[in-house]
Design brief:
217 residues; alpha/beta; Rossmann fold; 7 strands; 19% strand
């Protein structure tokens, strides 16, 4: 993609995300999923990776995704309609997936997470891409690879997004980006390009918005 096309894609994505976005529902199990009438783009990540903050920054809405000081609290799929008026078929949906990898999480909660996420990934025909959020300060952890394995097995396209990129030096960010790219290089469902972001500084958000829209086409 040349610079003009990239700039046009970023502007189009900015316009779409500046339009109506609203919370639809939470789904603690598959029977509560909304009707699959619109394409979906999901966001997943370890507890405290900054997922809710990134979704809020991405949509320019401070309270859209609920943030919590208690890791692992959210164990539901949260759906947000993007575009259109309430009651209309939305342009697409954002899906905030439950956090994982909280060390103190009870075993039954871990089991519930695995069942919910695995069933959603395998059975949701309208899911176009999952964005896997990785903390720039820590890189990929073993629990992240568990999710990547699930995505590969479900043949769900995914893209790695580094969060909190403002918290590390440029050299450290380049290093974690390179190590992450190498780790996902041979994974069948992984998008090769990684986007580094900062919810606080706005870094990478225009590119991530464009990537979300591109996943729908």
């Amino acid at each position: 993609m040349d610079n003009d096309a990239r700039a046009a894609a970023i502007e189009e994505a900015r316009r779409i995300f500046a339009g109506p976005i609203r919370f639809l529902r939470s789904a603690p199990s598959l029977k509560f999923l909304p009707e699959p009438i619109a394409e979906e783009v999901a966001f997943a990540g370890r507890s405290n990776v900054g997922k809710s903050s990134l979704i809020n920054a991405l949509t320019n809405r401070n309270g859209l995704a609920r943030t919590s000081n208690t890791p692992g609290r959210t164990q539901e799929l949260n759906f947000f309609d993007v575009g259109g008026q309430e009651g209309d078929v939305p342009r697409f949906r954002l899906v905030d997936m439950p956090g994982y990898g909280y060390a103190k999480a009870p075993k039954d909660m871990v089991r519930q997470w695995r069942h919910l996420v695995n069933d959603y990934l395998r059975g949701r025909a309208v899911l176009r891409r999952t964005h896997v959020l990785i903390d720039s300060r820590h890189g990929l952890k073993e629990v992240d690879h568990t999710l990547l394995d699930m995505l590969d097995e479900a043949a769900v396209s995914y893209r790695v997004v580094l969060t909190k990129a403002d918290k590390v030096k440029a050299s450290e960010l380049a290093d974690v980006s390179a190590r992450t790219a190498e780790a996902i290089h041979k994974r069948p469902a992984a998008h090769p390009e990684i986007i580094a972001t900062s919810s606080e500084k706005g870094m990478g958000l225009p590119e991530l918005r464009a990537a979300v829209i591109a996943a729908l086409t």
